[in-house]
Each structure stands twice: as C-alpha cells, then as structure tokens.
Amino acid sequence: MANVIQPSRIEEIKPPVVHVGAIGWLKTNLFNNWFNSVLTVVTILFLLKTVPPFIRWAFIDSVWNTPSQACRHATGACWSIIPHNYRFIIFGFFPYNLQWRPLLAMIILFVLLFFSQNRKHWKKSLAYSWIAGLFIMWLLLKGGLFGLASVDSTQWGGLLLTLLLSVFGLTAAYPLGVVLALGRQSKLPTVKMLSIVYIEAIRGVPLISLLFMASIIFPLFLPEGVTINKILRAQIAIILFTAAYIAEVVRGGLQAMVRGQYEAAESLGLNYYQTMRLIILPQALKIVIPPTVSILISAFKDTSLVVIIALYDLLKTTQTVLSDPRWMGYSREAYIFVSIIYFLGCFSMSNYSRKLEKELSRGD
Amino acid sequence: MDKEPSAAAGQDLPDELIIEIIDMHKWFGDFHVLQGINLTVHKQERIVICGPSGSGKSTLIRCINRLEEHQRGHIIVDGIELTNNIKNIEKIRMEVGMVFQHFNLFPHLSIVENLTLGPIWVRKTAKKQAEETAMYYLEKVHIAEQAKKYPGQLSGGQQQRVAIARSLCMNPKVMLFDEPTSALDPEMIKEVLDVMIELAQEGMTMIVVTHEMGFAKSVAHRVLFMDSGQIVEGNTPEAFFENPQHDRTKLFLSQILH
Questions:
Q1: Is A161 in the same domain as A293?
Q2: pTM of the full structure
Q3: What digits encode the pLDDT tens for the residues B199-248?
Q4: What is the ipTM of this complex?
Q5: Between chains, do B109 and A364 touch, taking CB under 8 Å as contact?
Q6: CB–CB contact A269 B170 (8 Å)
Q7: Which of B5, B25, B197, B255 shows the greatest Cβ crowding within 10 Å of its Cβ?
Q8: C-alpha angle B247-B249-B250 in degrees, rounded to nearest 5
Q9: B130: closest CA among B146, B141, B150, B115?
C-alpha cells in the first residue's frame, strides 16, 4: 500500500510559476538570448529615430485648418488639405448643393450594413429593408422623381463611387462565385465545362484588361445609339473578375467535405439542392472564410483600378485635388487620409469575418 | 450463389417482403465486388451480415438505398425497383434509414436540428411536430438532455445513438446498420447495442453489418456469411454458430470467436 498517494496531497500541488512581473516578462520575451537582445536593442533604436519625428511632423508642427498659403510656412504636416477638399474627395463631381443626397444614401447604406452584420437580424424583414433602402439610395443618387433634380451618373465619384463599386461588386460576386464552384463540381459535363472555361479564362487576364474591354471594346459591339452606363460596365467587370477567384476558394472548401456528409444527407432522402444548401455549403463556406475575406479585401482595394477608364473613385478625386496648384506638394497628407479610409474598410471586413468565424464554430 | 439461404426462423414473420434482391452484380472498375446476390427480407425480419473485410457486405447494404449503384440484376425495396429514376431513389431513401460506421452527424447543426432536418425538408412535417418527434426518439435512445448540444460535444457512443434517433425520426420501414460499433471505444459499444436491441424488440426490420456475434445470437432471425462478393451461407443463429456448413465459414468463425 506504500505506493498509494493520498488524495489530499495531490490537491496541494500547484502548477509551476510561469510569470514573475514585468521584469520577468521582459526577460523571457525580449532578452532570453543574445540574438533576441540585439534585436530588441536595434528595434528600440529604430523606433526612437522614427516615431518622435513623425509625431512632431504629424501633430506638433502641423497645421489643421488654414488657407493653403499658411501651409507654405508650416514645417509640419498640412492637414488643411483635407477640410478644404473633403467634399470633393468624398462626393466627386456631384453638384455641390445637392451633396446631402449622396451623404444620406451612404448613411442608409451604412445603417443597413450595420444591421446586416448581426446574424440575429437575418430575416425576411431585413431583405425588405434592403430592397427599400436600395430603391431610396438609387432615387437619391439619380434623382428625376418626386421633385429631385436629375443627376447624371457620370457625376458620381469619390468615396461614394468606391463604396458603390465595392459593396455591390462583392455582394454580387460572392453568390456567383459559389454557383460557379458548384458548377465546376457538377456531374453534368456542359455545366462543368462552362464553369471551368469561365473561371480559367477570367483568372487568365488582369482586372485592368477586363476593365478596358468593358469600357472600350464592349461598346463597339452594341448597336448604334445604345449605350450602357460606364459605371455599370465597370461594376460588371469587377463582379465577373472577383467571382472567378471566389469560385476557386469555395471549391477548396467543397473538397474538404468528407463523403460521409453527402451520404448521410442523401440517405435521409434530401435532394441535391437541399443537400448543398443545408449540409454542404454551410460547412464548406465556413471553412473558407479566411481566404474568402482575403479576396473580398483585395477586390475592395482593386476598385481603385477604375481610374484607368476615367472613373473618379476615391483615389482619383484625391489625385485631382493634388493637381490643384494651391495644394500641390501635400500628397503625403492626402494619401495618409485616403489610406485611413481604405484601412477602416479592410479592417472592419477582417474583424467581422473573425467574429463570424467565432459564432459559426460553436459546434466544434 | 443460385440458391437463396433459407429463412428458417421466418415462420413467425409476416409473409410480406420488404426487400427483394435478385441476381445482383456490382463491379468497382474491374473488381467484381458483388457476384450474384439473391436475398429476400420479410417485414420485421432482422438479418445480421458478417464476413471478412473486403467481402462486399457494406457494399451490399449500401446498394439497398442506392449509395452504391448495382450494374446487373434487380433490387426491389418496398415494392419499388431501384433504377436511375431519381424520384424513386428519393422515395426509397425516405423509407430506408441508415446508420454509418462514422456516425456522419451534421457538425454544424445541434442535435435536435440534426433530427428534425429530414422530417422538415423531406417529409414536410411542421417544425413543432418534428421537434416533438425528435425529443421522443432522443428520449428513446436515452440522450434527451443533450438535445441542445452539438455533435462535436458528445462521445462516440452518444453520437451513434443520436445517429440512430436521426434515422428513426424519418419513421423508416427498414433500418440499415453499417458496422455501427466498429468506430467506438470498447466501453461505448454496449450502450449502442442496447439501443439496437430495444429497437429489435419493437419489431423494426433491420439489416446489420457487424462483427458483434453476441448481438447476432440474441436478436437475429438469420445470420448471413459473405466472402468474396457472395453470400456463402445463411442460417438461424443457432445453426450458424453451432453447425456451420462451409469451410470458409468455419475458418471465419474460428478467427473471431476466441
């Protein structure tokens, strides 16, 4: 009986101490060997060299809301470029006194996006709100009804255009990509071939050439007198392009599904569409959330390529401001401002995707 | 095999047939996996199929609900012949429940959602009624308290009992079991077999591929022995275990009964 350990003894044993305060943390994480110590010192020196000057430039020596002449005397950043030009950067050539309309449209869009991010709200009522919201937004932007002055879509630009192209581009590309992925796995040879040809053809050309085709070559084939809105053409090019990439990512998710899931669904008597919708896609799409979001984020940034077909998106309106002689030379400030806007868009997408992943992984 | 194994214990069973398999062949590529299977199953009959691995026993029961396609011969289930007609296949699958070796529960759905999925989408049952049925069968497999959990949170034995309940919710006429205890830890085998025995006592028609010979002895009307794609021998459990006819059967039994 000598080998029997008393239960009370076991409870007394505590786990070994791992952390001992801030100094202990420094020792184990930053100075645990000579190589890490050197790296730590070099990093600290680098930060000392760069961060204080940047802070001085950006916040201490900077001017915030002055006429452009005052900027010439400032040694720091000239943030004045933003308050003096933000309305052009955000709304482009939209008639100045009507800019409350795109503002309201963007607010409606943000409210709808905000409500849609909570899965508890995914009901019929949300779908109706989107339909109503889209109609109101279109009305606000286009005008011509209910006494609103008509605005030609060639005057849409800035952040407004970037948001339109990306939000509708991404929401349309995703389902199309899923359908293409299913098509590529199809047992019907025609459907399979068409999907493969489509995906490989689109992935084989750069987005820029698609945009060129949409804006220059495509109109040549239209009968005389028929024109299709240039923004719509760019939008379609973005959707077609992004969908091909999403299709390949989704295919990866579909291939990760084990055969047993299909068999269990089939042996219950579910048909193909029910099996896909209820069993396979919810699991496969969940697996590929991280790569899907990468594609969506890069598609969001790629919308800036529409400058090459002379659409004034966020980046182009900013460049236009910089070509104004009064504000020439303040590109750093302007581009920092634009990067913050792009960053907020990308970061909220990646944040949301992590939240969604967490919610969906309840069962694991 | 041209002569079908006799249903010696079948006298007390209804005359009605639920499954009829006539001279059925199947190939995987060049491999002749099922070589002329003849089998009739009466309503309420319980059949255990055993045999060495690769003998085609899983393939045989997977042909019955068309998870595998046979290439020659006929399979008639509940009066409907299995052909490429997808409507007929779906009709048969509604009536034939299947339990898999690896459970195959849907990991993204809760236990109760796993059970109501089939009734709601295939049988078009109202959600509330489907949930009541689900709870009834969860009760039956002694696992009602886990209804709100997800499959990944349950042990193997519990998952397999949920899988049985999921099939029962469709109110099937036949239940197929494909090595239901082979993937389980030893201490969980009994809880699953107990549920299957209860099911047998209620008169469910069952075809079970298993190596659990104790189960075969206590519930089967007939035990079939398969080897190399053929049903070599079929008899009542008593006759099968006491007095096997074929050398291959004797060899197999000597290997698994120690």
A1: yes
A2: 0.81
A3: 999 999 999 999 889 999 999 999 999 999 999 999 999 999 988 889 99
A4: 0.89
A5: no
A6: yes
A7: B5
A8: 65
A9: B115
